[in-house]
Specification:
The complex is a heterodimer.
Chain A (H helix, E strand, L loop, with lengths): L2 E5 L2 E4 L5 E8 L5 E7 L5 E9 L2 E4 L5 E7 L2 E6 L8 E8 L7 E2 L3 E5 L1
Parallel strand pairs in A: 2-11
Antiparallel strand pairs in A: 1-3, 3-8, 4-5, 4-9, 5-6, 7-8, 9-10, 9-11
Chain B lengths: L2 E3 L4 E5 L4 E3 L2 E3 L5 E7 L5 E7 L5 E3 L5 E5 L4 E6 L8 E8 L6 E2 L3 E6 L1
Classes of the chains: A mainly beta, B mainly beta.
Chain lengths: 112, 112
């Protein structure tokens, strides 16, 4: 069966510091991968998606970036965090020809 | 513009009572439809999905949803709510595997 992992689970970072969140999927190959942000009490905002290694599409212009160095690894980064980057970050995957997405446990990021 | 609306921000029901969570969408054609559930501090879990065929779909944890094309709705139902159903529920729609859109969510509180 497929499993999706995210780490760290929680993170507190000062404004202006760098960020690296990691997501990995097990039990499937060539998945589509997604990064979402969920602000407190709000729905999900799609940040990036990837259909293959090195292929990244950005949905929202911001100071975040994403990379996919391996088939089942998706990384969310920032060079300098802003207060507004605080939130709950969720990684998700879907099969290549499937629409439904499956979510990881999330990372709670607090920028102070 | 494509949109997903969950009219109820917060619903409270008594344990054992029936539940209906509303979802309406605005899309150019019938999209794929989903309901997800999120417990506090957790990722999203897929409850059920509708792609085509029978308009009443069964999901996990005793949930079901009915697609009504004439009303552009996909309401989630459960005949008898358990205390463990207390969570945030998200309706989502998609036309393909890269454009899933989520509603703002409905928070369910279950009274003993």
């Amino acid at each position: 069966s497929q499993t999706i992992h995210q780490w760290p689970a929680t993170l507190v970072q000062p404004v202006g510091s760098p960020l690296s969140l990691e997501c990995t999927v097990e039990g499937t190959s060539n998945p589509n991968l997604y990064w979402y942000r969920q602000a407190a009490g709000r729905g999900l905002q799609l940040l990036f998606y990837s259909v293959g290694i090195g292929q990244i599409s950005s949905e929202v212009p911001q100071n975040l970036s994403a990379s996919r160095p391996q088939d089942r690894q998706f990384i969310l980064s920032s060079k300098k965090l802003l207060l507004s980057d605080s939130g709950f970050y969720l990684c998700a995957w879907s099969g290549t020809s499937r629409v439904e997405q499956y979510f990881g446990p999330g990372t709670r990021l607090t920028v102070t | 513009a494509q949109s997903v609306t969950q009219p109820d921000i917060h619903i409270t029901v008594s344990e054992g009572a029936s539940l209906e969570l509303r979802c309406n969408y605005s899309y150019g054609a019938t999209p794929y439809l989903f309901w997800y559930v999120q417990s506090p501090g957790q990722g999203l879990q897929l409850l059920l999905k509708y792609f085509s065929g029978d308009t009443l779909v069964q999901g996990i944890k005793g949930f079901e949803a009915e697609f009504k094309r004439s009303q552009s709705s996909f309401n989630l139902r459960k005949p008898s709510v358990h205390w463990s159903d207390a969570a945030e529920y998200f309706c989502a729609v998609a036309h393909n595997n890269n454009d899933m859109r989520f509603g703002a969510g409905t928070r369910l509180t279950v009274k003993p």
